[in-house]
Amino acid sequence: MSAPRGTRDILSPEVEKWHYLEGKIREYCRLYAYSEIRPPIFEHTELFLRGVGETTDIVQKEMYSFQDRAQRWLTLRPEATASTVRAYLENKLYAQPQPVKLYYLGPMFRYDRPQAGRYRQFYQFGVEVIGAEDPAADAEVILMAVHFFAHLGLGDLEVHLNSIGCPACRGAYRKELLNYLSEHIGNLCSDCRARYQHNPLRVLDCKQEGCRGIAREAPEFGAYLCAECKEHFEQVQAHLGDLGIKYQLNSNLVRGLDYYTKTVFEIITRELGAQGTICGGGRYDGLVEECGGQPTPGVGFALGVERLLLALENTGVKLPGVEPLDVFVASIGAGVQRPAFKILYDLRRRGIRADKDFLGRSLKAQMKQAHRSHARYVVLVGEGELARNVVTLRDMETGVQEEVLIEKISEKILALMGGMEDGR
Ligand code: ATP
Ligand code: MG
């Protein structure tokens, strides 16, 4: 049996890198004052039809939907912004001081074509600021992503920025775009011919070479932004300028989901080839209303954790590996097994990371095991020593051994380890 296509097991020594990144994510969310939300992994299918949009790739081709035993239609979440907005309404977070700043970290599910950096179960870290239309909120989420990446050591990033306006200005632009696309309809891919009907903006973001050429020559949204959207976009850019964040305007950037308004952005790295987008986001001023609430602005981003790890690896950033053991407890003779087990617990109770053999291995094999786990010390428990109420403590770096009273062993090791810390 194998795991379903597009899914994978994350094991040591990779999982240690995940722990490190997860720790950094929580550290940055704390720094920027976002609190965590853990929405369910499945939701009513209806939420994504409304929240993500019926004409998007996600809803049309990528959702894992199923009926439960009571015939309800449910979907494994393909993204978490819709869930966050649902939770905002359901938990009446609009009654709290605004904006509400939330982050999530967890698996998403999409029926994508598996390849490097593209899976069917993948992890996203995302933030949402709900209840603020201030352009500084847009700048904050972009800043947070850029600051986070820079802190991790990821260089060579491009921030692509665009504004896709509001329903008021989008109508005029859409008309102009349809006009332009109608002259090229024969050269669009079959997906884009369908997009032309239902969601023409998405043609701008098609990855097919033919469509990209057409998209490059398309009319730019900038000229159609209404006064309010134009001013908002200028303010976002002014903030980014103040913060020293480099960005490039990209009029073809529209993003895949229906709910975006005004600011949209992507952060791209050259380190990942075709799957170069590690982070995407933008403003979604229509989404809360779409999900049944009062008109409420929102802005956020989502980033792919697998792609981030790949990009860090390709950049040559060293991430923490497996943590060495502090102590390996080696025991010689059947009669010492129980006392050795007690000593092990005593060490752990004092916060010392320790392990022992569980297969009755020879002393030689146990020492090998200690080496393999990079143990700093070995505590040897033997029959003769036990009779004298001592164990042998071996420093694995220097090879120096000494006898230590059993009741003093944890203290002794803690003192030695404390000395090491001080020496660092
Ligand atoms: P793409 O164009 O690569 O399919 P997307 O526009 O569908 O990306 P978003 O919905 O913006 O992606 O999701 C935000 C981030 O989540 C992406 O930038 C990417 O890092 C990550 N991501 C999206 N889909 C996958 C996937 N199937 N496997 C791994 N990571 C993914
Ligand atoms: Mg996609």
Provide a quick synopsis of the model.
The protein has 424 residues and is of the alpha+beta class. It has 15 helices and 16 strands. The strands form three sheets. It has an eight-stranded mixed sheet, with helices on both faces. A five-stranded mixed sheet has the order 13-12-14-15-16, sandwiched between helices.
Secondary structure blueprint with pairings:
Elements: H1 14-31, E1 35-36, E2 42-44, H2 45-51, H3 57-62, E3 64-67, E4 73-76, H4 81-90, E5 100-109, E6 121-130, H5 135-152, E7 157-163, H6 167-182, H7 190-198, H8 209-216, H9 227-243, E8 248-249, E9 261-269, E10 277-283, H10 287-290, E11 298-304, H11 305-315, E12 327-332, H12 337-349, E13 354-356, H13 363-372, E14 377-382, H14 383-387, E15 390-395, E16 401-405, H15 409-423
Parallel strand pairs: 1-5, 7-8, 12-13, 12-14
Antiparallel strand pairs: 2-4, 3-4, 5-6, 6-11, 7-9, 9-10, 10-11, 14-15, 15-16
The structure holds adenosine-5'-triphosphate and magnesium ion (MG).
